[in-house]
Specification:
Order of helices and strands of chain B: EEEEEEEEEEE
Structural class of chain A: mainly beta
Number of helices of chain B: 0
Shape of chain B: globular
Low-confidence stretches of chain A: none
Largest interface: A-B, 21 and 21 residues
Radius of gyration of chain A: 13 Å
Strand content of chain B: over 45%
Number of strands of chain B: 11
Mean pLDDT of chain B: 94
Order of helices and strands of chain A: EEEEEEEEEEE
Strand content of chain A: over 45%
Distance between the termini of chain B: 41 Å
Helix content of chain A: under 10%
Helix content of chain B: under 10%
Shape of chain A: globular
Radius of gyration of chain B: 13 Å
Number of strands of chain A: 11
Oligomer: heterodimer
């Protein structure tokens, strides 16, 4: 039981490049989430998926897209990376109410 | 709008020196209050869920309590390995996701 896994762990992009962050959970949870964490800003919700086939915007969705591929997988795509998207990205899934987080992806955009 | 404020922002303790972290919240219809521990470079690790005022939960040297306006995380006789950032989050009745505080960075000196 791996919980929530994320790939890659680290990534450096140039402005304008695109990439997809991958997330998978093996806890059979319906809801999955993408957050970004910046110093002094705490965890901010980018997008979430309450169930397979549905996605909704969170607090800071601009510049991002998501895909809920199936019940296990929820990906986050940056179509044209900007330096303001330099951050640590966490994926999470929810049991009853408590959320379980992945190890994070540290993204730098130069 | 749900709000969570954690204090202090940072706390330094000597090993064995007990203290408390505070999480004040405003929420419409609390469905749950959550405490997480986050180590540098890792994702938040779930510690406790509290559902109603008066509830308490314990785990090793940590004890979480809940009132109608705030929660406390009491740390008894802390050890250096308790050093981490502690995050508080709430799930309000009208919300579809958690609202996180900015965290308290705890350092326990040997």
């Amino acid at each position: 039981n791996a919980g929530v896994t994320q790939t890659p762990k680290f990534q450096v992009l140039k402005t304008g490049q695109s990439m997809t962050l991958q997330c998978a959970q093996d806890m059979n949870h319906n809801s999955m989430y993408w957050y970004r964490q910046d110093p002094g800003m705490g965890l901010r919700l980018i997008y979430y998926s309450a169930s397979e086939g549905t996605t909704d915007k969170g607090e800071v969705p601009n510049g991002y897209n998501v895909s809920r591929l199936n019940k296990r997988e929820f990906s986050l795509r940056l179509e044209s990376a900007a330096p303001s998207q330099t951050s640590v990205y966490f994926c999470a899934s929810t049991g009853v109410y408590e959320q379980y987080f992945g190890p994070g992806t540290r993204l730098t955009v130069t | 709008e749900d709000q969570v404020t954690q204090s202090p922002e940072a706390l330094r303790l000597q090993e064995g020196e007990s203290s408390s972290l505070n999480c004040s919240y405003t929420v419409s219809g609390l469905r749950g209050l959550f405490w997480y521990r986050q180590d540098p470079g890792k994702g938040p690790e779930f510690l406790f869920t509290l559902y109603s005022a008066g509830e308490e939960k314990e785990k090793e040297r940590l004890k979480a309590t809940l009132t109608k306006k705030e929660s406390f995380l009491h740390i008894t006789a802390p050890k250096p390995e308790d050093s981490a950032t502690y995050l508080c989050a709430v799930w309000g009745g009208s919300a579809r996701q958690l609202t996180f505080g900015s965290g308290t960075q705890l350092t326990v000196l040997p």
